[in-house]
Amino acid sequence: MILHLVNFRWKEDVSPEDVAHLCEELASFRQEVDCLVGYHFGPDLGLRQGNADFGIAALVASSEALDSYLEHPAHHELVGKVLGPMIASRQAVQIEVAQPLTGT
């Protein structure tokens, strides 16, 4: 299994309402993409200084499933219309994991 982790720092003008809207869109998006084994997202809890503002963890079964997730039309639409305009910076990493995350 592959865990795709991405974190974001927001542009200065991103509001709490923008983040709430993004979370609603991500929850809907999760229902459209069947290659996801697990999917978690949310704003940083503020427990450590210097963290990113928001994170997404997507668990998929294989590199082919990762490609399907990243190339899915709903992913492109979400990034283009909602997420993209909010991003000041983005970092991502994919790691191999043996056990799936619990929950969705």
Structure description:
- By secondary structure, the protein is an alpha+beta fold.
- The protein has a single domain, classed as Alpha-Beta Plaits (2-Layer Sandwich).
- The protein is built from three helices and four strands.
- It is globular, with a radius of gyration of 13 Å.
- The chain starts with a strand and ends in an 8-residue tail after the last strand.
List keywords for this structure.
Alpha-Beta Plaits, 36% helix, alpha+beta, 104 residues, 4 strands, single chain, 3 helices, 4-stranded antiparallel sheet
Question: Quick summary of this structure?
Answer:
With 104 residues, the protein is of the alpha+beta class. It has a single domain, classed as Alpha-Beta Plaits, CATH 3.30.70.100.
- Molecular shape: globular
User: Which spans of ≥5 residues are poorly predicted at pLDDT below 50?
Assistant: none
Rg from C-alpha positions?
13 Å
- How many strands, which pairing sense, and closed or not: the largest β-sheet? 4 strands, antiparallel
Number of helices: 3
Strand content: 25-35%
Task: List how many beta strands DSSP finds.
Answer: 4
Query: Which fold name is given in CATH as the topology?
Result: Alpha-Beta Plaits
For the record, give the distance between the C-alpha atoms at the N and C termini, rounded to a whole number.
15 Å
- Helix coverage percent: 25-40%
What is the spatial order of strands in the main beta sheet? 2-3-1-4
Number of structural domains: 1
**What's the mean pLDDT score?**
93
CATH class designation: Alpha Beta
- Encode the helix/strand succession as letters: EHEEHHE
Structural class designation: alpha+beta
CATH architecture: 2-Layer Sandwich
